[in-house]
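Hey, can you fold this?
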Amino acid sequence: MFRKLAIILFPIFILAFNVNASSDGELTLNTNEKKDINKSKEIKDCFEKLNRATFAFNQGLDKAIIKPIAKGYRNLPDPIQRGTSNAVKNLSTLITIPNNVLQGDVKTAIINTARLAVNTTVGLLGTIDVANKMGFPKYEKEDYGQTLGAWGIGPGCYVVLPVLGPSTLRDTAGSFANVIGGDPWYNASVHGNNEFLSEGLYIGSKALSGIDFRANNIESFDNLEQNSIDFYASVRSLYTQDRENKIKNNQRGNIEVLYKDEEDWEEIDSK
């Protein structure tokens, strides 16, 4: 049991400052938007005192460990960074596809399946986005938390988990689906009998995903922190709005989701 828990938590350790996204988009914030974010509709912060303490801990962890690693990653040659980013995003499609189906979007599931097949084979294990060059459209990632939301389940209270970062009770529950059969990559690498797949490979892929995300959003988080009167409240608002927009598959509102290449991070633009 402890071993399984370690497998789950270690990869997410890299995502300590994550707001549940992974991409190489950029986040910019100006002073005019700051008020709009903090005035936006908020879910209940039932554990705010504890959440703020956990948030401070996660910030310290990010500045001491995660951010320095991300800066080093950015010094790698661009082809290596791009190939790594493409590969981890290709793996994430394994979770997106079943959630497309669960949300009744069979057409998108078929397209994502085709993208996965092409990029995994012709694209050298996903390091090259051949499917995009072939005209297969890119769709935003889906997860089980989004599916629960699409089914009408409310977010519940906002929580900041130690190491894991911002979440909600619904999204936390959705995350457990990954380790009880909902993530084919987890099933194959951790529970499979394939000699070429292992727990270490799974952990490594998740760690790379987190590093890639953090490396491509260094300025984004710095801008958000510098332009926020209350950084904790700004991250909470950004996270909850992002999740709401993803559930609605709506790219309009206080936050406009802009996908750069195949990214799924948000850029806050003044409108």
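Oh, and this one too while you're at it.
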Amino acid sequence: MDMNKLQEKYQKLLSYLKELDSVAIAFSGGVDSTFLLAAAKEALGDKVIALTAKSCLFPERESGEAKDFCKNLGVEQIVLDLGDTELPAFKHNPPNRCYICKKSLFEKFLQKAKEYQMSYVAEGSNMDDLGDYRPGMQAITELGIKSPLRAAELTKAEIRELSKQMGLPTWSKPSFACLAFRFVYGETITAEKLSMVERAEDLLRSNGFLQFRVRIHGTIARIELLPEDIPRMLDSELRKEIVDKLKRYGFTYVSLDLEGYRTGSMNEVLA
């Protein structure tokens, strides 16, 4: 990685943010939004707020980490109750579910930003997000939401490297997507099923797995692990613990995906 070019991109990001004058950052506590919020704080000082959605689509653990980071950074955080699973068009989980959710969410963010007299709302998508099927990006474009990381042409790897240089705690944090991405399209999203997925993923995390997904197909759990982690799951004691607990959580069957962890695997049915 060319460090000079990387610093040029970072300076481009800071310049872009300064031109916004004031901004509300859509902040989840993930790698990208944490980096963006820190950069916005550097560029704009007190003319930055963080907007965070409170939702059963995001684990409580993520909410706590986001709150702590804002406090340490000295940025005011406003938490909005999303109520997304109450949206009929969302909970029925069509292929454009992400568009429905993002439009509802960012409309609320725009309203809140206006209340706080912020000039713009910005979100943390990067150059790597342009490849996969992402209908939520359409909503962001339609609503005029700013995407500073894409404006600076930053990739995920570059964001991690800059985050490391800045001492941000998220530089090595595993990628996380909202829990709705664990559902096969057409399957109704409920608070109960979201809880099943969250508990299952917490169990894997507590057993030392770092990058994974638990996908839900009816009452079947499909576990995606990094290829190098698959042999470990075959340990008889660990396998029994995982299976027994997931069945207690409400799953009928527990399967291991031999293709391993990959982003957007639920989009494979759309090809």
